[in-house]
């Protein structure tokens, strides 16, 4: 029987799918894209259902325009998955699902749509590579291979120290899937910063007979369209992608692997604020396939669930390369070792000189870019702030400018103090540019490279720097987070960590977890080859337990201790949080509005929910817009979901006066 009404989701902020009159001759199926009129526009929508009746009067319903092409429909699992994501993160289904398609597939088709499709299909994802000798797996790796359950849904956590051969395990697991079904599809998720051509190449080389593609926000629309289509049509076997790849259409998806699962880039910070790690687990459940989360420093959320038995825990405690050992870490009390007016203390200088004499490489980590985080006037105490944000403007010596890292506002460094006219304007604190200057003065003959957001603006320039480190052309590599992640430097024998102390004073309850993780990552860059490694960490707080655990490379004790304190103070993962964020011109109005929201939430008297008072966000003003937040807390994610289902309609009713966002399971609050 022909169905009269066709239900379609489109990229608009509407909670229910739109009803249209069907054109039975088009023979559209659930999961197919189609063209529909929305207001005066023509939009691409996705068919999600049919019915004989509509709650709208039929004479007011519009007719669908028609089909777009003959692509196979999106799977019912994919639809279920996107619907779940929409419900969980309180974002309309259409706005969640449709934007995950590349532009080519969500825009009304051009005249030569079919020939464009055929052109996209010609992209080749198979790389034939010479046979390679595979390493013999060690006992710990073998154990994972033998005990990882492949046939059904289950979450496993692979907690393996840096260099323990996690990537090798991923590759072998993929091989096992292909042994059973050569047509299978696998999703390998990686953090934004880790998706290097080297990794994709490593995967592609291992599977010369399978198609391997990558997926990230930096790709051109053409590349995205070709990759998405190949995945959707089952021609792509392995998709290596960043967080948005969790929404890819993979009809033969058989396993999901998430590398560095603790990485915060898996969480979207704008739009639909989803955690792609959490969504990937849901996706695996819907598809009834296994999922493996890997990390040297698992997120406390995941570690807790492994300890409680929800996830299967695999441990890899040894470095995979023969004779490679975890580096020794030494804490240096900077208050005793300081060289006046300099970032590098006496002992650090000594060790760097020795390392350079041995022709080995040094890596220096400082998580602050620019020259100085702020400049100040020595006469009157004026400091460089951004006029549009509640932040400091950072001095960049290379450009001679003060720049706001939040809004990009830039102005030349004033010659005279704007307040008192004095010429005594001096930099305060140190960023990578200033430390680079110090290093170049100390070791004028060394080849020094700096790697941070400023030095790598050009596409591919980070790759060039990393390549020359691998080739041994660089003596000292200095950088921010970018140098911390994943790179397998074989000749780095000394790692120096400068000034991570400010993080210890942060009010964010996740700051310690994050610091530990990044410091473990950085330390893990030392001693990966045959040369033993050493890590020196300068700090004022040598007694802090965080550094104590770090120097023993003891993630597990650190996590257990911190988890205990989180449990006592009722913080995630022992509770669930959600933020209502509102923005407007004046913080007072924003807070007043959020207080109304709070009263509305309180009036529900929902058990197991705690509602805090509205406060300004930690960086209250960005680009002249002021932001406040209201924190909601529940005993569990389940209770939070149940509460939000009741509360959301009330909240959305109130949303018209301010821009309001909801962040479920926020990472910053
Ligand atoms: N069983 C093995 N025998 C010898 N070498 C191995 C073995 N497994 C892995 N390796 C090598 O050890 C090095 C580190 O392995 P891999 O990159 O898989 O580690 P990882 O745990 O992913 O590291 P990281 O967490 O630091 O990214 C690589 O050079 C890899 O080729
Ligand atoms: Zn600014």
Automatic annotation (TrEMBL):
InterPro entries: DEAD/DEAH_box_helicase_dom, Helicase_ATP-bd, Helicase_C-like, P-loop_NTPase, PriA, PriA_3primeBD, PriA_3primeBD_sf, PriA_C. Gene3D superfamilies: P-loop containing nucleotide triphosphate hydrolases (3.40.50.300), PriA, 3(prime) DNA-binding domain (3.40.1440.60). Signal peptide: none annotated. Zn(2+) 2 binds at residues 386, 389, 404, 407. The keyword Transferase does not apply. Its EC number is 5.6.2.4. Residues 412-571 form the Helicase C-terminal domain. PROSITE patterns: HELICASE_ATP_BIND_1, HELICASE_CTER. Belongs to the helicase family. PriA subfamily. HAMAP family: PriA. This is Replication restart protein PriA. It comes from Turicimonas muris.
């Amino acid at each position: 029987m022909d169905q009269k009404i066709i239900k379609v989701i489109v990229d608009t902020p509407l909670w229910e799918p739109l009803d249209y009159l069907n054109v039975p001759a088009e023979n559209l199926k659930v999961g197919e894209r189609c063209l529909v009129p929305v207001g005066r526009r023509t939009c691409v929508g996705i068919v999600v259902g049919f019915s004989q009746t509509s709650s709208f009067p039929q004479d007011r319903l519009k007719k669908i325009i028609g089909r777009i092409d003959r692509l196979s429909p999106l799977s019912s699992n994919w639809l279920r998955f996107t619907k779940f994501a929409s419900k969980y993160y309180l974002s309309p289904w259409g706005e969640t699902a449709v934007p995950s398609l590349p532009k080519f597939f969500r825009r009304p088709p051009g005249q030569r749509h079919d020939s464009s499709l055929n052109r996209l299909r010609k992209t080749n994802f198979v790389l034939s590579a010479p046979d390679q000798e595979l390493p013999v797996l060690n006992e710990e790796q073998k154990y994972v291979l033998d005990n990882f359950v492949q046939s059904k849904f289950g979450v496993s956590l692979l907690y393996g120290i840096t260099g323990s051969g996690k990537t090798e395990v991923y590759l072998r697991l993929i091989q096992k899937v292909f042994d059973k079904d050569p047509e299978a599809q696998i999703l390998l998720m990686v953090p934004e910063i880790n998706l290097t051509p080297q990794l994709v190449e490593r995967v592609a080389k291992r599977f010369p007979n399978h198609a391997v593609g990558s997926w990230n926000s930096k790709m051109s629309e053409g590349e995205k369209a070709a990759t998405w289509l190949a995945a959707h049509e089952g021609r792509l076997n392995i998709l290596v992608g960043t967080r948005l790849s969790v929404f890819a259409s993979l009809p033969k998806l058989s396993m999901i692997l998430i590398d560095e699962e603790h990485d915060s880039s898996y969480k979207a910070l704008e739009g639909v604020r989803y955690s792609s790690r959490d969504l990937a687990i849901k996706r695996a459940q819907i598809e009834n396939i296994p999922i493996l989360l890997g990390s040297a420093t698992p997120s406390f959320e995941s570690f807790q669930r492994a300890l409680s038995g929800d996830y299967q825990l695999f441990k890899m405690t040894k470095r995979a390369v023969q004779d490679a050992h975890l580096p020794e870490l030494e804490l240096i009390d900077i208050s005793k070792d300081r060289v006046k007016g300099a970032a590098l203390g006496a002992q650090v200088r000594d060790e760097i000189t020795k390392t350079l004499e041995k022709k080995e490489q040094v890596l220096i980590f400082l998580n602050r870019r620019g020259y100085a985080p702020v400049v100040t006037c020595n006469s009157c105490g004026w400091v460089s702030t951004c006029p549009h944000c509640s932040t400091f403007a950072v001095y960049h010596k290379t450009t001679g400018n003060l720049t706001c890292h939040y809004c990009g506002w830039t102005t030349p460094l004033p010659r005279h103090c704007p307040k008192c006219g004095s010429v005594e304007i001096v930099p305060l604190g140190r960023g990578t540019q200033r430390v680079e200057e110090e290093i170049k003065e100390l070791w004028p003959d060394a080849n020094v490279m700096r790697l941070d957001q400023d030095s790598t603006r050009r596409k591919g320039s980070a790759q060039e720097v990393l390549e020359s480190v691998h080739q041994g052309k660089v003596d000292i590599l200095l950088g921010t987070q970018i140098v911390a992640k994943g790179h397998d430097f074989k000749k780095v024998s000394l790692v120096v960590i400068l000034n991570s102390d400010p993080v210890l004073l942060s009010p964010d309850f996740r700051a310690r977890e994050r610091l530990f993780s990044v410091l473990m990552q950085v330390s893990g860059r030392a001693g990966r080859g045959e040369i033993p490694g050493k890590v020196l960490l300068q700090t004022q707080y040598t007694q802090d337990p965080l550094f104590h655990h770090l120097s023993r490379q003891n993630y597990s004790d650190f996590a257990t201790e911190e988890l205990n304190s989180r449990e006592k103070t009722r913080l995630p993962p022992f509770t669930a949080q959600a933020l209502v964020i509102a923005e407007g011109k004046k913080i007072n109005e924003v807070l007043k509005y959020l207080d109304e929201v709070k009263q509305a939430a309180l009036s529900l008297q929902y058990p197991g929910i705690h509602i805090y008072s509205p406060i300004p966000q930690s960086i209250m003003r960005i680009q002249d817009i002021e932001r406040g937040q209201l924190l909601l807390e529940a005993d569990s994610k389940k209770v939070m979901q149940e509460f939000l289902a009741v509360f959301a309609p009330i909240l959305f009713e109130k949303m018209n006066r301010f821009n309001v966002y909801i962040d479920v399971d926020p990472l910053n609050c």
